Amino acid sequence: MKVTFPHLGTMHIFCKAIAETAGIDYIVPPKTSKRTLTLGVKHSNECICLPFKIILGNFIEALELGADTIVMVGSGPPCRLGLYDLVQKVILEDLGLHYRWLTIPPRLDWPALLKNRDETRELKKELSLKNITTFPYALWIGWKKMMACERLEKLALRVRAREVITGRTEKMLQKALAGLDKAKTGRAIERAIIEGEKILGSVDQDRGRQPLRVAIVGELYTVMDPQINRGVERKLGEMGVEVTRTSWFSSHILRSLGVGRENRRERLRYYRASLQYLGYDVGAECNVSIGETILRAKDGYDGVVHLMPFACMPETTASGILDRVSRDLGFPVLTLILDEQENEGRITTLLEAFVDMLMWRRQRFH
Amino acid sequence: MRRIGIPKALMYYRFFPLWSAFFRELGCEVVISDPVGKGFLGRQSVAYFEDSCLPMKLMVAHCLDLVEKVDTLFVPRLISIHRKYIMCPKFRGVPDIIKLATGGQAEVMDEPFDFRLGNDPWGAFSRAIGQRLGWRSREILAASRGALRVQAKFEKDLVRRVNGLAIRDIFNLERPTPEATSPAGNLDVALIGHPYNLYDVDVGKDVIGMARELGCRIAIADSLDGYEIDKKVSTLSKEIYWSSGREIIGAALIFLARDDINGVVFLSSFKCGIDALLQEYLKRVFKGQRESIIPFLTLSLDEHTTVQGMATRLEAFVDICRDGKRKDAR
Ligand code: SF4
Ligand code: SF4
Fold first, then answer.
1. What's the pLDDT tens digit per position in A37-72?
2. Is residue B102 included in any domain, yes or no?
3. Residue of A nearest to B277 (CA)
4. Does this complex have an ipTM over 0.95?
5. What DSSP designation does B79 have?
6. Which domain holds residue A120?
7. Domain containing B127: what range?
8. How many CB atoms lie within 10 A of CB B13?
9. Confidence band of A345 (pLDDT split at 50, 70, 90)
10. Of the given ranges (A117-131, A233-247, A249-263), which has the lowest mean pLDDT?
């Protein structure tokens, strides 16, 4: 058995860690490339979510490399995310690819378990007792690595906005993450974090700089994966903007498990703020996108970048309302709609113009 | 008399009889928007749903058409119209978008409707609305029961109306339902899709009329047993949680397995999240069962769709269905 998983953000680092620690064979899908996207696009249609296409491409490429079991975190209503697997399965079957599909249900309840019953039975045959007994430990290692990745990424967001040599932070971040990727035990992870922070700290910074502050909001995979958003986060950072975002793997996992006080409180705060414009929970990140924008404006941020994949359902609603929020509050919001034909030049141009405008505003008003 | 505006868009094409009967019983004047026709896109109004599917954009246009003619716009927040399943998430934000687009020119009645809640969701919903209009429980109850009867009768008649009336009269309650359909057609074609794709001329360009003209008898999901649809869909590897999605997939699977259907047409809206996903599913299901020789056509609708283009594709499709039928007979 060789498991595989999507290649989103830093997800492969901690998924790999889980499989490795539990002694399960795995294949990391090749880094998302043009080919990945082309494959995803070819076997779906233009109005399907961009994340769907990238994940589909990841799976096709991993299966080509010999993976035979796909692990995917399930999701629920109301958005399309919850039905990705239903459709991806028939697409892969139609391509004549053979695989086994494991959905980790977002909530462990009876219907979910029943739908997964056959898969679970199959799986039991393949796993040794050792695999199963080490699994909790493996999960813990995975969790630790995920938190470590996020810690380094968050640090990089601050450093990047102040770097003296453009592009230096990104290089160092990759180096730090590679070191982390190699760590095998809890203690090694701790060491890798310290090491990583040192590496990032070595980047020359202009400490006197007062970078613009921008929050990125929008559909979660689009915000979290640099391949889907064409490196918006990095681009903004290298234009001297300190970027903040609330979408992280940890925050979304905590939310779906229903734990994490801090995390829940923050989300609730955004949700409440959104009610002024949107009288109901629309689902996915719609309300948070709106609520966060309102609160960021109050917190003195310089602007918000709103990311949505083409034809995304909840974010379409959000973008219509954000337009109004932006006008009401006199607060700059840039909505970027991402699709498969995106050329990076357009995004860069739009971001540059946006940052110039923010600069101009700051000079004028402060 | 209070004038209530019902925009002729979205779920108008399912619940108009219910809604209008209810308001009339309560002594309101019901005003319906005019068809928007061509050129509505030029108006600044649509900006609020610029990136959305056509049916949503039309909703905004219809409300703007009504706003000056009425006191209250009826734009309920439709969360769910089924015991277990939900509506497309876009419906949840509709009243908010309408409020922004109309800028407070008319009161917006945005009571949430969630059929998953409580024992009598329609009762609770109608009570909330009736009370807002200043009526007492007893009168509201009578009105809401009467309205349910109107709706039930309409639903029973729908297949006959689709086959016997011009498209603009299907939802015109003053037109009586024709007696049993004239057996004019010799080909049975099933049309599936969201109701507004089927019945709104601005979206579906009267596919129903075109197909009838080409000699087709129309079958629709409403002619199937809802329980059967539900059972069929529940056999899939994952529970589909949109009621409209279930109806589309379930109806397609049932029609696919029936010998008395010669073809299936799926009317989908461009940029509709649900349709885009289901389309990929259906395409492959039909492909896998090619032996059954039921041709399947997906028509994608948006503001650039022309009547001409649709007619051409439909004609070609009907020809294929005819061939298939002839082969079967042999
Ligand atoms: S939020 Fe948008 S991208 Fe994500 S599943 Fe829903 S429609 Fe697709
Ligand atoms: S179901 Fe599709 S067509 Fe209908 S409102 Fe939602 S996205 Fe638009």
1. 999 999 999 899 999 999 999 999 999 999 999 988
2. yes
3. A48
4. no
5. E
6. 3-127
7. 3-150
8. 20
9. confident
10. A117-131
Q: In B122-227, where do the E strands start and end?
A: 187-193, 216-220
Tokens of A173: 């971040």
Residue A235, C-beta contacts closer than 8 angstroms, at least 6 positions apart: A347, A348, A351
For the whole prediction, is pTM greater than 0.80?
Answer: yes
Question: In 3D, which of B78, B66, B97, B67 has the Cα closest to residue B19?
Answer: B78
Strand, helix or coil at B297?
A: strand
Concatenated DSSP letters for A136-202?
A: HHHHHHHHHHHHHHHHHHHHHHHHHTTBSSTTHHHHHHHHHHHHHHH--SHHHHHHHHHHHHHHHHT
To the nearest whole percent, how much of chain B has pLDDT over 90?
A: 61
Cβ distance of B49 and A316 shorter than 8 Å: yes
Chain B CB within 8 Å of residue A45 CB: yes
The structure tokens listed for A213 are 């502050």
Q: How high does pLDDT run on average in chain A?
A: 90
Quote the CA–CA distance of A343 and A334 in Å, as a whole number: 17
For tokens 């000079």, what's the residue?
A363
Confidence of residue B324 (pLDDT cuts 50, 70, 90): confident
Q: Looking at residue B89, what DSSP letter applies?
A: G
Does B155 fall in a domain? no
For ligand 2, what atom is nearest to the CA of residue B89?
6
Domain total in chain B: 2
Radius of gyration (C-alpha) of chain B in whole angstroms: 20
Interface contact flag, A87 B110, Cβ < 8 Å: no
- Asked if residue A115 and residue A218 are part of one domain, the reply reads no
Instruction: Tell me which residue of B238, B253, B124, B309 sits closest to A72, measured CA to CA.
Output: B238
Burial class (CB in 10 A: 0-12, 13-18, 19+), A357: middle
DSSP assigned state of A15: H
Q: Which of A50, A72, A81, A338 to mutate to test the pocket of ligand 1 (most atoms within 8 A of CB)?
A: A81
Residue B238 with chain A: CB contacts under 8 Å = 82-83, 85-86, 103, 115
Question: What mean pLDDT do residues A106-110 have?
Answer: 59
